[in-house]
Specification:
globular; single chain; mainly alpha; 5 helices; 0% strand
């Protein structure tokens, strides 16, 4: 259950940081510290693939701060195109990892 909790917490923290980055130019430093702490915990518990994807999410969030703030119309277009879903690949990789772990326990 530890790993599932960590992934859930990471997804929630990354989503909060991403929303903040879409709307602000100044980074949420405490949010980043929390996000990177979760990535470091993943280095202990998770596969290298999970860590790699999580690091990519963090880089994308940092890069988003250098882009212009997004208004509602831009966000709506991001939703339509699917580009707003920054965490999808992470979620899929977590599901695959859990399936592998379950198969190993049988």
């Amino acid at each position: 259950m530890r790993r599932q909790d960590l992934y859930k917490e990471f997804i929630e923290a990354a989503a909060r940081c991403y929303v903040h980055a879409l709307q602000h130019e100044e980074p949420d430093i405490p949010g980043f510290v929390d996000l990177y702490a979760k990535i470091d915990r993943m280095r202990i518990l998770s596969s290298p693939k999970i860590v790699e994807i999580a690091e990519g999410i963090a880089r994308k969030i940092v890069d988003t701060y250098s882009e212009p703030d997004k208004g509602f119309v831009e966000l709506r277009e991001m939703v339509k195109s699917g580009s707003v879903n920054l965490i999808r690949d992470f979620s899929v990789a977590c599901r695959v990892e859990f399936e592998i772990l379950q198969a190993q326990q049988l």
